[in-house]
Amino acid sequence: MPSTDLSSILSSDVLLGCVFLVATALVSLKLLPLRFISEKNGTVLTAVTAYKSYEKVSKSSARKMRAAFHAELRTAGNAKWIANEIEYAEKLERLERAIEVNAVVASYIYRLAAAKDEAGTGCNDTSVGSDAYVGAEDHAKVREALKRFVRDWCEEERTESGVWRLEGEVDGRRVKRVLVPGAGLGRLAWEISQLGFDTTANERSHFMNLAFKYLLSAQTTRETDLIPDVVPRLSDAFHLDEGDFFDTFPGWSYVVTLFFIDTSLNVIKTVRHIYSLLEPGGVWINLGPLLWTSSGVALELSLDEVVRVAELVGFELLPVNEHGESVKMVECEYTSDSEAMMRWLYRAAFWIARKPVCSN
Ligand SMILES: C[S@@+](CC[C@H](N)C(=O)[O-])C[C@H]1O[C@@H](n2cnc3c(N)ncnc32)[C@H](O)[C@@H]1O
After folding, report:
1. For the segment 140-158, what is each residue's pLDDT rounded down to a tens digit?
2. Given a cut of 80, is residue 271 above it in pLDDT?
3. Which atom of ligand 1 is found nearest the CA of 263?
4. CA-CA-CA-CA torsion for 298, 303, 307, 308, nearest 10 degrees?
5. Ligand 1 center to residue 261 CA distance, Å?
6. What is the topology classification, in CATH, of domain 2-19+154-204+243-354?
7. Residue 287 Cα, ligand 1 centroid: separation in angstroms?
8. What is the average per-residue pLDDT within 207-227?
9. What's the confidence (pLDDT) of residue 227?
10. Which residues have any ligand 1 atom within 6 Å of their CB?
């Protein structure tokens, strides 16, 4: 059954937990003035500019850490030999090297976007954006995108994947259209397309889309071998829809949401829209927590309430385990560092919900 195949991608650990050879440098950021941008394409410009200034801003933070370290040692009695003993200065050097490696990726993303004039400014490589366009939260989004490369597109430490078992079952699936809203860096959507489904990754964040296009570009992936573990390409069976999921049109056999629905301001509206997108008999597959983090979120529902909303909207929840339960809890991490002392473990909810065949 295709729905089971898709659901086993989600319920497996295919997308969770891997280590990237480009360590993302978690450094505090210099606060830059956030300029109010009213132009139509302003937010793309912000994203492009934030990638452009990644190296400068991150190196500035690293320099501050180094200066604070040396200043402290000058005043902290005999701490110097201890710091030397634990090779703290070398650790700061490793941080700077990691920033440099990340900066290669950030620079490719920026230059690709500038070359294609993604921001629609008519600006060329040298004139796109000044630092005045970006604020600390934009730099945080760049770091988040770099972490998503780790989550989605590196091989190391990826645990057993349900996807590979499904090879050989792909015949005749191209007619089935799958929408993956809030696709981030697109790995899940890519894996689904590789099963033979006609798949669209939908994502509204310019930060994510610029980074994803780095992966999709023959030019950038040829020029650097830093990432990824597999090379995704757009095709007649794999599409990128850069826009708001609420603007997508109906006609989907499947909607697959991964760590998505809790980014909604109004999850009732989200569930209703998913329902309206599906053709009769279509299936919604979901995996994710309910960590209501969007600013201005209107509704913070419990799991029971979300499930009830799905039923009230018209969905029929299908059994997801041998006990006939309609929700399965799956423990998973998200962009976590496998070597960190603090790790978030989500108990994410997994369900498969069908839109009745006799529905409108
Ligand atoms: C928590 S992330 C999950 C990304 C991806 N599914 C994953 O698991 O790595 C949620 C994503 O949904 C995107 N998103 C949120 N609301 C959206 C909307 N209305 N339309 C399109 N994308 C949206 C965000 O930009 C973000 O990339």
Report:
1. 999 999 888 877 787 654 4
2. yes
3. 15
4. -70
5. 8
6. Rossmann fold (3.40.50)
7. 13
8. 80
9. 63
10. 148, 151, 181-184, 202-205, 208, 244-246, 258-260, 263
